[in-house]
Amino acid sequence: MTNSPSVFITGAAAGIGRATALAFATKGYTVGAYDIDNDGLTSLAEEIRLRHGSVVTGHLDVTDADEMSQRITEFVEFAGGRLDVMINNAGILLAGRFEDVDLGAQHKEIDINTKGVVNGLYAAFPHLRSTPKSVVVNLCSASAIYGQAELATYSATKFFIRGLTEALDIEWSDYGIRVIAMWPLYVQTAMTHDISTGTTRSLGINLTAQDVAAAILAAVAGTRLQKTLHQVHFPVGTQTKMMTLGSRFSPAWLTRVINKRLARQ
Ligand SMILES: NC(=O)c1ccc[n+]([C@@H]2O[C@H](COP(=O)([O-])OP(=O)(O)OC[C@H]3O[C@@H](n4cnc5c(N)ncnc54)[C@H](O)[C@@H]3O)[C@@H](O)[C@H]2O)c1
Question: Which of 28, 24, 63, 22 is nearest to 40 (CA)?
Fold first, then answer.
Protein backbone atom coordinates (compact mmCIF):
# COMPACT_ATOMS: atom_id res chain seq x y z
CA MET A 1 0.00 0.00 0.00
CA THR A 2 1.12 3.60 -0.65
CA ASN A 3 1.49 6.17 2.12
CA SER A 4 -1.30 8.45 0.89
CA PRO A 5 -4.82 7.57 1.93
CA SER A 6 -7.38 7.40 -0.86
CA VAL A 7 -10.98 8.54 -1.25
CA PHE A 8 -13.51 7.56 -3.94
CA ILE A 9 -16.33 10.09 -4.46
CA THR A 10 -19.44 9.69 -6.62
CA GLY A 11 -21.16 12.76 -8.05
CA ALA A 12 -17.89 14.67 -7.63
CA ALA A 13 -18.18 17.12 -10.53
CA ALA A 14 -20.35 19.66 -8.71
CA GLY A 15 -21.79 20.79 -5.40
CA ILE A 16 -21.01 18.85 -2.23
CA GLY A 17 -19.05 16.12 -4.06
CA ARG A 18 -16.78 18.67 -5.71
CA ALA A 19 -16.17 20.63 -2.50
CA THR A 20 -15.42 17.33 -0.74
CA ALA A 21 -12.97 16.25 -3.46
CA LEU A 22 -11.11 19.56 -3.07
CA ALA A 23 -11.10 19.29 0.73
CA PHE A 24 -9.68 15.74 0.72
CA ALA A 25 -7.11 16.63 -1.98
CA THR A 26 -5.90 19.51 0.20
CA LYS A 27 -5.47 17.03 3.06
CA GLY A 28 -3.15 14.88 0.92
CA TYR A 29 -5.59 12.15 -0.12
CA THR A 30 -5.42 10.50 -3.52
CA VAL A 31 -8.85 11.46 -4.86
CA GLY A 32 -11.00 9.39 -7.20
CA ALA A 33 -13.64 11.76 -8.58
CA TYR A 34 -16.44 10.22 -10.65
CA ASP A 35 -19.57 11.59 -12.26
CA ILE A 36 -21.69 11.61 -15.41
CA ASP A 37 -20.59 15.22 -16.01
CA ASN A 38 -17.25 14.91 -17.83
CA ASP A 39 -16.72 18.68 -18.27
CA GLY A 40 -17.22 19.26 -14.55
CA LEU A 41 -14.67 16.54 -13.80
CA THR A 42 -12.12 18.05 -16.17
CA SER A 43 -12.29 21.43 -14.44
CA LEU A 44 -12.18 19.75 -11.02
CA ALA A 45 -9.02 17.81 -11.99
CA GLU A 46 -7.38 21.05 -13.16
CA GLU A 47 -8.26 22.74 -9.88
CA ILE A 48 -6.84 19.86 -7.81
CA ARG A 49 -3.63 19.67 -9.84
CA LEU A 50 -3.16 23.45 -9.48
CA ARG A 51 -3.15 22.76 -5.73
CA HIS A 52 -0.57 19.98 -6.31
CA GLY A 53 -3.10 17.34 -5.35
CA SER A 54 -3.41 13.82 -6.74
CA VAL A 55 -6.62 12.97 -8.62
CA VAL A 56 -8.10 10.42 -10.99
CA THR A 57 -11.38 11.19 -12.73
CA GLY A 58 -13.72 9.12 -14.84
CA HIS A 59 -17.24 8.71 -16.12
CA LEU A 60 -19.52 6.85 -13.75
CA ASP A 61 -23.27 6.50 -13.74
CA VAL A 62 -23.92 5.13 -10.26
CA THR A 63 -26.96 3.19 -11.49
CA ASP A 64 -24.66 1.02 -13.63
CA ALA A 65 -23.29 -1.68 -11.30
CA ASP A 66 -20.71 -2.91 -13.83
CA GLU A 67 -19.33 0.57 -14.43
CA MET A 68 -19.18 1.14 -10.67
CA SER A 69 -17.20 -2.05 -10.14
CA GLN A 70 -14.83 -1.21 -13.00
CA ARG A 71 -14.16 2.36 -11.79
CA ILE A 72 -13.55 1.30 -8.20
CA THR A 73 -11.18 -1.49 -9.26
CA GLU A 74 -9.21 0.89 -11.52
CA PHE A 75 -9.03 3.54 -8.84
CA VAL A 76 -7.87 1.19 -6.09
CA GLU A 77 -5.14 -0.07 -8.40
CA PHE A 78 -4.03 3.53 -9.02
CA ALA A 79 -4.14 4.25 -5.29
CA GLY A 80 -1.73 1.40 -4.52
CA GLY A 81 -4.32 -1.13 -3.40
CA ARG A 82 -6.07 0.92 -0.72
CA LEU A 83 -9.54 2.41 -0.34
CA ASP A 84 -9.64 4.42 2.87
CA VAL A 85 -12.84 6.37 2.28
CA MET A 86 -15.84 5.67 0.03
CA ILE A 87 -18.25 8.59 -0.33
CA ASN A 88 -21.65 7.79 -1.83
CA ASN A 89 -22.66 11.31 -2.73
CA ALA A 90 -24.32 11.29 -6.18
CA GLY A 91 -27.99 12.12 -5.92
CA ILE A 92 -30.84 14.05 -7.52
CA LEU A 93 -33.85 15.81 -6.05
CA LEU A 94 -37.28 16.31 -7.58
CA ALA A 95 -39.52 18.85 -5.86
CA GLY A 96 -43.26 19.19 -6.20
CA ARG A 97 -46.48 17.57 -5.12
CA PHE A 98 -46.18 13.79 -5.52
CA GLU A 99 -48.92 13.47 -8.16
CA ASP A 100 -47.40 16.26 -10.27
CA VAL A 101 -43.93 14.72 -10.57
CA ASP A 102 -43.49 12.46 -13.60
CA LEU A 103 -43.45 8.79 -12.56
CA GLY A 104 -40.48 7.88 -14.76
CA ALA A 105 -38.49 10.74 -13.21
CA GLN A 106 -39.37 9.48 -9.72
CA HIS A 107 -38.14 6.01 -10.66
CA LYS A 108 -34.86 7.56 -11.82
CA GLU A 109 -34.56 9.44 -8.53
CA ILE A 110 -35.04 6.18 -6.61
CA ASP A 111 -32.49 4.39 -8.81
CA ILE A 112 -29.77 7.03 -8.38
CA ASN A 113 -30.33 7.80 -4.70
CA THR A 114 -30.79 4.22 -3.47
CA LYS A 115 -29.60 1.59 -5.97
CA GLY A 116 -26.62 3.83 -6.82
CA VAL A 117 -25.51 3.66 -3.19
CA VAL A 118 -26.07 -0.10 -3.00
CA ASN A 119 -23.92 -0.49 -6.14
CA GLY A 120 -21.15 1.63 -4.59
CA LEU A 121 -21.17 -0.24 -1.30
CA TYR A 122 -21.20 -3.64 -2.99
CA ALA A 123 -18.27 -2.87 -5.29
CA ALA A 124 -16.24 -1.09 -2.61
CA PHE A 125 -16.62 -3.72 0.10
CA PRO A 126 -13.63 -6.03 -0.67
CA HIS A 127 -11.30 -3.02 -0.90
CA LEU A 128 -12.67 -1.43 2.28
CA ARG A 129 -12.26 -4.72 4.10
CA SER A 130 -8.60 -5.01 3.09
CA THR A 131 -7.81 -1.40 4.06
CA PRO A 132 -7.36 -0.88 7.80
CA LYS A 133 -9.67 1.69 9.46
CA SER A 134 -11.65 2.39 6.28
CA VAL A 135 -14.76 4.57 6.36
CA VAL A 136 -17.94 4.75 4.27
CA VAL A 137 -19.76 8.09 4.10
CA ASN A 138 -23.32 8.09 2.77
CA LEU A 139 -25.07 11.38 1.99
CA CYS A 140 -28.31 11.28 3.92
CA SER A 141 -30.35 14.42 4.62
CA ALA A 142 -32.44 16.23 7.20
CA SER A 143 -35.37 15.06 5.06
CA ALA A 144 -34.89 11.64 6.69
CA ILE A 145 -35.93 13.03 10.10
CA TYR A 146 -39.60 13.20 9.05
CA GLY A 147 -41.20 12.64 5.62
CA GLN A 148 -41.04 15.91 3.70
CA ALA A 149 -44.05 17.27 1.82
CA GLU A 150 -43.23 18.30 -1.75
CA LEU A 151 -40.13 16.06 -1.57
CA ALA A 152 -41.93 12.81 -0.79
CA THR A 153 -39.93 10.38 -2.91
CA TYR A 154 -36.62 12.17 -2.34
CA SER A 155 -37.25 12.12 1.38
CA ALA A 156 -38.10 8.40 1.22
CA THR A 157 -34.81 7.66 -0.58
CA LYS A 158 -32.97 9.30 2.31
CA PHE A 159 -34.85 7.11 4.82
CA PHE A 160 -33.47 4.20 2.78
CA ILE A 161 -29.95 5.60 3.19
CA ARG A 162 -30.53 5.98 6.91
CA GLY A 163 -31.55 2.33 7.29
CA LEU A 164 -28.81 1.01 5.04
CA THR A 165 -26.16 2.97 6.94
CA GLU A 166 -27.36 1.81 10.35
CA ALA A 167 -27.46 -1.84 9.26
CA LEU A 168 -24.05 -1.86 7.61
CA ASP A 169 -22.47 0.02 10.50
CA ILE A 170 -23.36 -3.03 12.59
CA GLU A 171 -22.47 -5.68 9.98
CA TRP A 172 -19.20 -4.15 8.84
CA SER A 173 -17.92 -3.33 12.32
CA ASP A 174 -16.82 -7.00 12.20
CA TYR A 175 -14.23 -5.90 9.62
CA GLY A 176 -13.29 -2.60 11.28
CA ILE A 177 -15.14 -0.56 8.62
CA ARG A 178 -16.96 2.53 9.94
CA VAL A 179 -20.19 3.33 8.08
CA ILE A 180 -21.60 6.81 8.70
CA ALA A 181 -24.22 9.17 7.27
CA MET A 182 -24.10 12.95 6.85
CA TRP A 183 -27.32 14.86 7.52
CA PRO A 184 -27.32 18.36 6.01
CA LEU A 185 -30.44 20.50 5.71
CA TYR A 186 -30.70 22.58 2.50
CA VAL A 187 -27.36 23.38 0.86
CA GLN A 188 -26.67 26.08 -1.75
CA THR A 189 -25.90 23.88 -4.77
CA ALA A 190 -27.42 23.28 -8.21
CA MET A 191 -29.74 20.78 -6.52
CA THR A 192 -31.60 23.51 -4.64
CA HIS A 193 -31.02 26.35 -7.10
CA ASP A 194 -34.41 26.30 -8.78
CA ILE A 195 -36.64 24.87 -6.10
CA SER A 196 -39.16 26.65 -3.94
CA THR A 197 -41.08 24.50 -1.48
CA GLY A 198 -42.76 25.30 1.81
CA THR A 199 -39.68 24.23 3.75
CA THR A 200 -37.11 26.00 1.55
CA ARG A 201 -39.12 29.17 2.21
CA SER A 202 -39.64 28.59 5.93
CA LEU A 203 -36.16 27.23 6.75
CA GLY A 204 -34.03 28.92 4.07
CA ILE A 205 -31.08 27.44 2.16
CA ASN A 206 -28.26 28.30 4.49
CA LEU A 207 -25.45 25.76 4.23
CA THR A 208 -22.67 25.87 1.64
CA ALA A 209 -21.08 22.86 -0.07
CA GLN A 210 -17.87 23.77 1.78
CA ASP A 211 -19.70 23.51 5.14
CA VAL A 212 -20.71 19.95 4.28
CA ALA A 213 -17.24 19.05 2.96
CA ALA A 214 -15.66 20.27 6.21
CA ALA A 215 -18.19 18.24 8.21
CA ILE A 216 -17.38 15.12 6.15
CA LEU A 217 -13.63 15.56 6.73
CA ALA A 218 -14.22 15.97 10.47
CA ALA A 219 -16.58 12.97 10.64
CA VAL A 220 -14.11 10.75 8.78
CA ALA A 221 -11.32 11.75 11.16
CA GLY A 222 -13.76 11.25 14.07
CA THR A 223 -13.08 12.11 17.68
CA ARG A 224 -12.16 9.36 20.12
CA LEU A 225 -15.61 9.70 21.71
CA GLN A 226 -17.43 9.46 18.35
CA LYS A 227 -15.50 6.31 17.51
CA THR A 228 -15.95 4.76 20.95
CA LEU A 229 -19.71 5.42 20.85
CA HIS A 230 -19.93 4.32 17.19
CA GLN A 231 -21.65 7.57 16.18
CA VAL A 232 -23.42 6.76 12.93
CA HIS A 233 -25.33 9.95 12.11
CA PHE A 234 -23.69 13.35 11.68
CA PRO A 235 -26.12 16.29 11.48
CA VAL A 236 -24.58 19.23 9.61
CA GLY A 237 -25.32 22.78 10.75
CA THR A 238 -27.19 24.21 13.72
CA GLN A 239 -30.67 23.87 12.20
CA THR A 240 -30.28 20.14 11.55
CA LYS A 241 -28.78 19.56 15.00
CA MET A 242 -31.76 21.31 16.63
CA MET A 243 -34.27 19.44 14.46
CA THR A 244 -32.65 16.07 15.15
CA LEU A 245 -32.64 16.75 18.88
CA GLY A 246 -36.21 18.09 18.83
CA SER A 247 -37.55 15.07 16.94
CA ARG A 248 -36.09 12.75 19.60
CA PHE A 249 -38.09 14.35 22.37
CA SER A 250 -41.29 15.58 20.73
CA PRO A 251 -44.30 13.26 20.55
CA ALA A 252 -45.28 12.04 17.06
CA TRP A 253 -48.34 14.34 16.84
CA LEU A 254 -46.23 17.41 17.62
CA THR A 255 -43.53 16.47 15.11
CA ARG A 256 -46.28 16.15 12.48
CA VAL A 257 -47.81 19.52 13.37
CA ILE A 258 -44.40 21.24 13.18
CA ASN A 259 -43.57 19.60 9.84
CA LYS A 260 -46.98 20.48 8.42
CA ARG A 261 -46.62 24.10 9.53
CA LEU A 262 -43.10 24.40 8.08
CA ALA A 263 -44.31 22.88 4.79
CA ARG A 264 -47.27 25.25 4.46
CA GLN A 265 -45.35 28.53 4.24
N1 LIG B 1 -28.22 20.32 -1.73
C2 LIG B 1 -28.89 19.98 -0.64
O3 LIG B 1 -29.71 20.76 -0.12
C4 LIG B 1 -28.66 18.65 0.01
C5 LIG B 1 -29.11 18.47 1.34
C6 LIG B 1 -28.93 17.24 1.94
C7 LIG B 1 -28.34 16.20 1.26
N8 LIG B 1 -27.90 16.41 -0.03
C9 LIG B 1 -27.34 15.27 -0.73
O10 LIG B 1 -25.99 15.55 -1.07
C11 LIG B 1 -25.65 14.87 -2.28
C12 LIG B 1 -25.03 15.85 -3.27
O13 LIG B 1 -25.97 16.87 -3.55
P14 LIG B 1 -25.56 18.28 -4.18
O15 LIG B 1 -26.39 19.30 -3.50
O16 LIG B 1 -24.09 18.44 -4.21
O17 LIG B 1 -26.13 18.08 -5.66
P18 LIG B 1 -25.62 18.67 -7.06
O19 LIG B 1 -26.78 18.58 -7.96
O20 LIG B 1 -24.95 19.99 -6.86
O21 LIG B 1 -24.49 17.62 -7.48
C22 LIG B 1 -24.82 16.27 -7.70
C23 LIG B 1 -23.77 15.64 -8.60
O24 LIG B 1 -24.19 14.28 -8.83
C25 LIG B 1 -24.03 13.98 -10.21
N26 LIG B 1 -24.93 12.90 -10.62
C27 LIG B 1 -26.26 12.95 -10.85
N28 LIG B 1 -26.71 11.76 -11.27
C29 LIG B 1 -25.64 10.92 -11.29
C30 LIG B 1 -25.46 9.56 -11.62
N31 LIG B 1 -26.49 8.80 -12.07
N32 LIG B 1 -24.23 9.02 -11.50
C33 LIG B 1 -23.18 9.77 -11.08
N34 LIG B 1 -23.28 11.08 -10.77
C35 LIG B 1 -24.51 11.65 -10.87
C36 LIG B 1 -24.34 15.29 -10.92
O37 LIG B 1 -23.80 15.29 -12.23
C38 LIG B 1 -23.69 16.30 -9.99
O39 LIG B 1 -22.34 16.53 -10.31
C40 LIG B 1 -26.93 14.20 -2.77
O41 LIG B 1 -26.94 12.85 -2.37
C42 LIG B 1 -28.02 14.96 -2.06
O43 LIG B 1 -29.19 14.22 -1.91
C44 LIG B 1 -28.05 17.60 -0.65
Answer: 22
